[in-house]
From TrEMBL:
Regions that span the bilayer: 38-59, 75-93, 132-149, 155-173, 185-204, 216-238, 250-268, 280-296
Species: Quillaja saponaria
Name of protein: Nucleotide/sugar transporter family protein
Domain Sugar phosphate transporter: 21-294
Localisation per UniProt entry: Membrane
Amino acid sequence: MGEISSFQLGVIGALFLSVASSVSIVICNKALMSNMGFPFATTLTSWHLMVTFCTLHVAQRLNLFESKSIDMKTVMLFGILNGISIGFLNLSLGFNSIGFYQMTKLAIIPFTVLLETIFLQKQFSQKIKLSLFLLLVGVGIASVTDLQLNFVGTILSLLAIATTCVGQILTNTIQKGHNVSSTQLLYQSAPFQAAILVVSGPLMDQFLTKQNVFAFKYSPIVLAFILMSCLIAVSVNFSTFLVIGKTSPVTYQVLGHLKTCLVLAFGYTLLHDPFTERNILGILIAICGMGLYSYFCTQENKKKQSEDLSLVSQAEDKDSSPLLAGKNTGHQDKENHEANKSNKDSLV
């Protein structure tokens, strides 16, 4: 029971860290890109990953965690896939309207559920599906505005959905299959993610923004915000792997939509972004969906834990029964032997 309580506290801590760091980095990056005119999102992400790797390397050298080697081919393909998914998400944003990009992010949850059901034989109850549907409707009402379709943008969005879902499922599968922590997996894979984005980032940003990242005039305040963004990104990347490893890719996506609602609320209160009754209605529906999802997941986990404990106790009873039977049989044999002996003595 103590291990279960410790695990639940770890999950709560991971969720809180993920929400706090993600909302912080969104606000920081929005100020950097909107107010200071720094539009190079993919290049900035590559810097995030490089700083993350350097930070973890220092932590590993200080023995704050133990590095665990994973099959190089697995880590390389995993890192490259995650780097490609980031690139596709940024391209999807560049070729689509904001509304269609939000729809792309919403589609990640049902697609993840579909993939886990088909390939991992994972079962989702009707209550869980209903809560996820309510969540997606709420976020859609709150964040989706215009839906302008185009062929290239649609293809890029489909590729972004597929690579993101597979990458997040692999994050969970590799951690459990290779018995590695989120820190160990992030430390091993970050260099490959950073490498592919360092090479492709400046080219992709120039293609999307028509500006050169190396020709940008970096003022002290821009450099300060870039540094702040990179430092927050260490926490974001770490908490992402932590949440997916401790929960599931679907739970992480649900958490992501909670971040979307929080960002909308912070944008209204801190940055005075336009906010309508539709936004409020959507956020309230989404919060109801998240609450139901959390409640149903908690109930199903408790049910599963009680079933597991019941199976363990049955197995223990089964193992102990032959021993007791053996002891009773031995005791009974001893009594029979003494009885026979006494009978013989009486006959003599």
